[in-house]
Amino acid sequence: MRIAHVISGLDASSGGPSTVCLELARWQSLLGARCTILTARHDGPSFDAVPARDAGVSLVELEPTGPGRLRDILRCTPDMGPWLKEHGPSHDLFVLHGAYQYPTFRASLYCRRHNKPYIFTPHGSLDPAVRGKHARRNRCIDALYHDNLIRNAAAWHFTSVEERLACERPIWRNSFVEPLGIDIDALPPGPRSNAFRQRHAIPADAPLFLFLSRITRKKGIDILLNAFRRLTGDRADVHLALCGPVDADLASMVAGAVAESGGRLIAPGMVLGDEKRAAFLDADYFVLPTYSENFGVAVLEAMAYGLPVITTTGMNIHTMLAQSGRTRIIEPDAASLHATMRDVMAEPWIPAESVETTRLWLQDNFSWKARADHLLRHYEDAMKGSEP
Question: Which pTM does this prediction carry?
């Protein structure tokens, strides 16, 4: 099967969908599919594409155009039309990742004109908590073109039952649920190196909570900052590392909290590679107090590294996570988060399951090899269903 995965960009600031696209194409290629990733080039930091290329994935990055900030927002790529005309006929299926971007719109237009089946993977983009941020704009785009794009997909891929239930545009012809995955073997636990702590002047014996994701409103940043402010009144030694790119509308809030903390709250920006691994290994707890989270790859990564995790019912897969024995699931509010963070320090949290048992649980439920194989089967079913 020849598959073209289409995504607006692979920039690290986009978070989960970018790394998911790379890993999914990589594992499907290792399983025998011939995968291409078609995307717009981005000037900033991007996730490492070398493992995907080594697995045989063809990465096509087209140059976006447009004035100033619109260039990065719209990702309009004039060369996509000629590329699709030349290479589109040789692909059996297109997989469109995410909503409201030019590359996915242009690919869907090609597919509809040439009777090519395509899968739409929203990555949580149609959740009410996401769509509410630009509600009027989104309704206009829906009416202009986006409803046609998603309505005519051969199938929709949801990563959880909860995502499908919450979706604000239930206009699919067919849909399936299949979780995403992580490469557990690439995330080995290890002894604390203190490299991250030393780099950011965090004492070796200080309790350290780690948040590692995009710093955006839906992740519950207001909850986290409120709870941590109260926590510093309970414990003089507690620290929080707020790692990730900061949305513009939260920049002043985060900067103010850092200044107020007296060095106990750090916001080093995006961490990748060895620094990301060091952050996981040096932390005591991982925290993601999200209002809405489609999947939460970073939560699974934290568990693979051996960290106990505090997250919320806003995680679409929170019911599954509760079975792991290494998570505490709370309601997404500051009082619940403060109480839980305070309690796990007052009486050291000993998770019900060992790190080794949790890694086996992750392997059984979220292995990329299994998930990629299952998705190939879903793709085949959708292609059969799309035949005239």
Answer: 0.89
